[in-house]
Fold this protein.
Amino acid sequence: MPKLSKTSNSRVHWQMRAELRRAAHYEGSILARAALSGQPSPFDKSDRLRATVTFRPKTRVCPDLDNALSGIKGEIDGLFTVLGVDDKQIERMELARDYDAKTGDVEITVSLAA
């Protein structure tokens, strides 16, 4: 069975892609709730935000950063839904890779823009 992808370049039916994106949004919101540990969001709808996204691939084979980012858009939307802000408030986004960790995860840090 081919690997399913939620990116716009994937060759799956639009309904399947939408279902994958909904699942990614849900996963991002669950992870954000866990990270907040029941605390209210530290951000306001008027705040200007900065986001840092660090990819930690298990191997050195990793897509370029813009494709890696497009692959986690649903999770990012879920994160911002839980924070009660819109991702349009991001003024600066930094993308990085950490090949040393080899954990296969993604770390997203959101802070107030300077």
Notes: The chain has one domain: 14-112. The longest helix spans residues 14-36. The domain at 14-112 is CATH 3.30.1330 (60s Ribosomal Protein L30; Chain: A;). The beta strands are 49-56, 90-97, 105-112.
